[in-house]
Specification:
With 374 residues, the protein is of the alpha/beta class. It folds into 2 domains: 233 residues, Type I PLP-dependent aspartate aminotransferase-like (Major domain) (Aspartate Aminotransferase, domain 2, 3-Layer(aba) Sandwich), CATH 3.40.640.10; 116 residues, Aspartate Aminotransferase, domain 1 (Alpha-Beta Complex), CATH 3.90.1150. It is built from 12 helices and 12 strands. The longest helix is centred in the C-terminal third of the chain and has 20 residues. It is globular, with a radius of gyration of 21 Å. Bound molecules: pyridoxal-5'-phosphate (PLP). Pyridoxal-5'-phosphate binds next to helix 3 and helix 4.
Length: 374
Amino acid sequence: MPQDDHPLSIETLVVSAGRPPVGPDQPLNAPIVPASAFHAGGSLEYAREESPTTSALEQAIGLLEHGTATAFSSGMAAANAAMDLIPPGGVVVAPSAAYTGVAVRLRELDAIGRIRLRIVEADDTEAITTACEGAALLWLESPTNPLLQVADLPACIAAAHSAGALVLVDNTFATPVLQNPLALGADLVLHSVTKALGGHSDLMMGALVAADPDLAERVRIRRVLLGAAPSAFDCFLALRGIRTLAIRVERAQDSAREITRRLEAHPMVERVRYPGFGTIAAIDVAGGAAVAEAVCGAVVVWTHATSLGGVESLLERRRRWPLESTTVPEGLVRLSFGIEAVEDLWSDLDSALTGAPAAAASAPGPRRAPSGGA
Ligand SMILES: *Cc1c(COP(=O)(O)O)cnc(C)c1O
């Protein structure tokens, strides 16, 4: 366990956190405990409240993010639990292009009068500072999905706190390997564990991490009452994914840096959106929606699918989702870098881009997917 005078590095923590106690015959890994209820008389009662495999995962995520974690059945379940903490009619300041599901849900809550929403750009610190006056919650995402805007977290957190607002940071894109919002003063961190923490595109889960134990307890009660508990098997998978988080992020970030550098000079790319760190980028493809769709349809090493943060590199045109923010350009393709060889990723993407105008000319119009994607 980390000592205050010598805290363990994130590369070590991802390997060591959330293990059973050390002792003869103890398993190295947290066992999968598929039980809804536990014999009375001890500390465990009912799995929606607390369950051993879930607790192991929560211990690990809490250590990675410097707080107390509660696991949920998806990132959106965690997001809704956080929204449930807002007092009736409370003002929420949130980015225009936050994750689609979050943005749509906040707008729904505003429309029924449950909250009052003030929309800002995540990279406009001055506007955020002004909007925080009288707010209950500042909801930040940095970098944002999918525009890759970066918020000045310390400045925004200070502005929100001096206005008396809580600060939540969706840290799904940066991951705890690259950014710890609680260490920067935020009150709550949100993760879609579905993404980089899970890392293998084989589970759905979310987490909220609170710096303050009382706030953490309020979050846990939201999980209990809203009913969004994850399964023991998924918690096991997420823990297994976390073991390689640091090495996956390092590898994928190297590829992201190299390929975005080359894309800057690509004639089919109008704009590269990459903040210089992290494993996600986006490109504005020259020629708009149809050409961008043709790129997504032509790749063979990359996978054309929504979501992000897995070992496999994924790409998609975000505006194929009708609920995506209209501030996202029609031809924007989001790139989630996996851990394949960088030259294989590059040659595949390069030839898909180069061949896209011809492919688009002979293809049907862009497809629309049904909802919001990930
Ligand atoms: C995917 C995502 C979510 C939602 O998480 P789910 O696990 O899909 O419910 C929230 N925030 C960000 C930034 C995401 O990418």
